[in-house]
Amino acid sequence: MDATGPNADLLFPSDAHSLSLAREIYGNLASLPILSAHTHVEAAVLERNEPFAGPADLLVTPDHYLLRVLHASGVDLSSLGRRERGGEREDRAHAGGRTGEPAESGGREIWRVLCRNWPVFRGTNSRLWLELELAGLFGVTDPLTEATADSTYDRIASALAEDDYRPRALYERFGIEVLATTDGALDALTSHGTLAADPHFEGRVIPTFRPDNVLDATRDDFASNVADLGRHHDLDTDGWQGYCEAIRMERERFIAHGAVASDHGPGLPDTIDLSEHEAERLFADVLGGSATEADRTKLTAHLLFKMAELSCDDGLVMQLHAGVLRDHDGAAHARFGSDIGADFPVGVSFTRGLRPLLERFGSDPRFTLVVYSVDETAFARELAPMASYYPALRLGAPWWYLDAPDAITRALSQMAEVAGFSRAAGFVDDARSFCSIPARHEVARRVTAAFLARLVAEHRLSLQEATDTGVDLSYLLPKSTFGL
Amino acid sequence: MDATGPNADLLFPSDAHSLSLAREIYGNLASLPILSAHTHVEAAVLERNEPFAGPADLLVTPDHYLLRVLHASGVDLSSLGRRERGGEREDRAHAGGRTGEPAESGGREIWRVLCRNWPVFRGTNSRLWLELELAGLFGVTDPLTEATADSTYDRIASALAEDDYRPRALYERFGIEVLATTDGALDALTSHGTLAADPHFEGRVIPTFRPDNVLDATRDDFASNVADLGRHHDLDTDGWQGYCEAIRMERERFIAHGAVASDHGPGLPDTIDLSEHEAERLFADVLGGSATEADRTKLTAHLLFKMAELSCDDGLVMQLHAGVLRDHDGAAHARFGSDIGADFPVGVSFTRGLRPLLERFGSDPRFTLVVYSVDETAFARELAPMASYYPALRLGAPWWYLDAPDAITRALSQMAEVAGFSRAAGFVDDARSFCSIPARHEVARRVTAAFLARLVAEHRLSLQEATDTGVDLSYLLPKSTFGL
Amino acid sequence: MDATGPNADLLFPSDAHSLSLAREIYGNLASLPILSAHTHVEAAVLERNEPFAGPADLLVTPDHYLLRVLHASGVDLSSLGRRERGGEREDRAHAGGRTGEPAESGGREIWRVLCRNWPVFRGTNSRLWLELELAGLFGVTDPLTEATADSTYDRIASALAEDDYRPRALYERFGIEVLATTDGALDALTSHGTLAADPHFEGRVIPTFRPDNVLDATRDDFASNVADLGRHHDLDTDGWQGYCEAIRMERERFIAHGAVASDHGPGLPDTIDLSEHEAERLFADVLGGSATEADRTKLTAHLLFKMAELSCDDGLVMQLHAGVLRDHDGAAHARFGSDIGADFPVGVSFTRGLRPLLERFGSDPRFTLVVYSVDETAFARELAPMASYYPALRLGAPWWYLDAPDAITRALSQMAEVAGFSRAAGFVDDARSFCSIPARHEVARRVTAAFLARLVAEHRLSLQEATDTGVDLSYLLPKSTFGL
User: Is residue C26 part of a domain?
Assistant: First the structure.
């Protein structure tokens, strides 16, 4: 970032011909509406529409990308506003607020820690996003340093006190068309209901059904979550039939609140089609406590398969991301819970794991499956080949660790050459911090424009085709994939 | 593609210096003869030399690259000319014609389906190839759309009725020096014999020995294929000795028809050296039906090892491609057979799998092994390191899913930095459609020129060295590797 | 290389703007001192300070990068100066001299073999390095060919006879600040002691503790090495306590000789925390010969864990490189021993394997772990994510097969976007040949400058930030990581 803020040609190539192509393509993408089809911001924020608590609360503490790198730089998570938790497990998807709220007084200190450590973010997507946010939203173009920590903090804090910076005003300013939050099974969804009923709010904030808590039979709290589910729907979920019916009803409840998609984060992408009889037996063993680890894994794989079957009936788009070993740092997990940046990828086989599901539902016109990977080697080797054959399979955007300029570029290249662009689900931001949404879309659109400019320069696409493809990836594909 | 056809600088870099280097290097590659050392076109096509049935039959139906992406776009394979099969298994390698012939009347409709869906191929190698074919061979430079479907169909169809477009005329026009087809064990090879004996045909069309049907002991039809093999050579293949002798004789039969290479496509690249006694016992168990799955896998690994041994004796270059889960979509396989685009890569370990074979034969001057991978991570991690040590091992070209500009570029980079260029086997087209052969070579040569231009621009190679290397990769290396 | 030697813009991009940025950044890196924090040259060479025996002995025979590719080109290792060994195992880390010394008379013939085969090195890092060495050190800018073999040999040989080309003079000319050799447990370290005590030598040559011989319980010679270790420290290493104490004392001995780091090369990166009781039992079983292969693997994983514990106490930086199947070619290993170029990567899981160690020690401020990978897919998928969270974990430079321009570029991109630059350990040369040290650093600095120039051109870094980052990666990060 120059002293005057991000350059107008940020992320564009430097040779003159490619640069002019990138500018022209990006010109057609820059002001497209934002479809935020997969995020982790809370609906309650928009429901309450209260001023954000402060710079650290808004920009630092909820963002595990920042926490992670600060932790690596020797900063203890407790000094970043992460509340240490008591004995009880804080459910990843179910938690109303993912992070402890830092005390007002602590916010300035957290911001100073960030500024002091800002050089360690050189080269990362976090730096790109935050500098775009600071310049675009708050007019902060000074580099973050120890010396500028207080002045930048004050500038952001005073802006946040203005009505223009309340969540709903920002929602509108960002040009968000739809915002799909991520919500655990059993989540009350009251904020979504309130927002939908609010005549003063013209946005569209919908939940996404994230049922790992009641589907992942390898979890310790599976049985108790299943019991909760039964109570909620007044069904006997001790038995397989009642459990299946409760899951079905829970999906319906989300759909009634506007949900268009489910989201699944199992450790492995394995799926299996079991007979009703065997599923029933395994389920009983798991609830009864006699199941082996292999039994639990098998039941989980079958429940994933089952979700595809239900999707064919109720139309929820199924999102799947697997291949992450979560809560890698046991001691830190015990202190601070999940989402502290200690979830790390492992290699998995999508080709083998998804086979039963894709054989059965992969060509069903009622079904859409979006698969995300944090292992980029899976794009060219497994996901793009399969998505270039199965109509139901869509390539999820490179996200999380891969949501950065070079990684997006590599992913676009690998996906396009094998499967063409039309098999992509388009960009999703997976944002942790509300204000990062437009920055994340801007970076992706700039990188997409630069990538497509190269294909034009190499005479592989016409400029018109490239522009159309950019619009597809940025807007039309998420719209059609998720039925928004 | 512009309205006037592919640009003369297709796939070249855009900065002026690199562009002029790429042009100069490519100028030395463009008109080299074509060594088509590994294809899937049928010798019978050249033997009969009849006009091609029509645009769809020539360009669409035999090409599983196109079928795959059209299927993903919601087109049923039956409307693309794939004949649904009856109960009997259609053998992948043995089939005389891989695809059902579309009825004449259906060809125009298939072409319309392709044109209507043409935008989904943006970014793929299929699009590059087909547009080069259409412009170069048929003068079709109009973009394919629903509106141009009939006119382009008619133009191609009328060209195909001319004698200039018969297979042998095209063979000559394409500048093909040698064409090596792929033929299953037990294939009659009559077309190869007829062509070789035909004084009016000056080309060289040779078979490649693809014996998966009689070597892959995990197949259901292994025992019956082995029995056929015995009948064919008048040997008792119920016993290990007779089986080995029949395999040896079958190789000799191919060699007598001009074969210079074998081609093996096991699921895994695993090899093992068993004692004669253990091999004999496993073989008996497999034929007798008492073998476990592990036994069958073990025998298959030993037979692969055995092929290297035989190669040392009879000189056939051994080609190996592993790491593909074939016929992934069971239901579609039951309806349409193999080669519909539903074969997907899986990660495998070449380093571990090939070790027994390479320890024994990897430094044998009589032996050449060409290994292809559809997992590009294996190039830098396993294949290039091993090929940079074992004299017998050659790096197969990036093919299939990886036979596209960016993927070829990545592969060249990974192979060259670890092993140098001299360890490459050079480009093979692996063509499914006869007319795609020159287009596939053109794309590879252009990408090679662009890659080498960068090395010159970075002062890593002189222009002369780069030009020589381009000639090596395009022509001399396949010539020497396969002894053509 | 042009006839006048390597171009001043070697490895820089060709578009004018990027080129000027790369030049400017590199200008600040070119003359930084060299920290050679991880090499395989012998301290004895500097201790004795005798003239190098000749061009082949200096540049060819000790370099398994060259041997490997020459072997692949059909050259027998025995004609490259590798001495065939007798029956006894030549220990990888313990060997005083890694290679047999070629007879004087044989050196010229080895050089001729290299020159005759020089074209096979096009595109490799070996070629870049050697041409930089020849031009920079010996003024040899003629291309190596059969015709120039004798003249270049003579020129180098006559230079080597001059005092300016003795090891200590070159050490100074190269601008080496610290040289850390790699030395097996039980190595006498006499050369290090002599050098440290020598008032005439102003360099700093320190050992690195490479204890695979006494820590890898899967080795055949583990028990006898452990017995040697006991004898050396006058301890009873038949028992677990004595063994642990001897290891601790051996580390102290290295530290007393200046060591700042240990280096571990297990096959797998697996670690496990066992109870003292279980460790004791496994150790007894291994020494007693009753241990299974799984027991030996488990003990090895625990000993790796144990090393991290000891590092917290004594401060040695722990270096780890795993995922290599060593001595792949059994027959050649039997003839020539290790380090002949036949060690090949395999995929491993760092995320799973290192978890126990990182959970326990990954946030301990006393601990530093540098992990190297020869599988580049591990950078973005596993190592950069973990290093961006665990303060103790540093990203080892892309080395060995990956120590080449494009591979370094890919690694920088993957590491930086996930973890930022500050998590890197910085460049280490891992040199096999003394004279390749400056060339290896030059190539890395040039590639780093070119990579950073792109980030500046894309407005992701300011020129000042890029320059600072280049200095970090080239000098300051190795200095701080290894405490030099």
Answer: yes
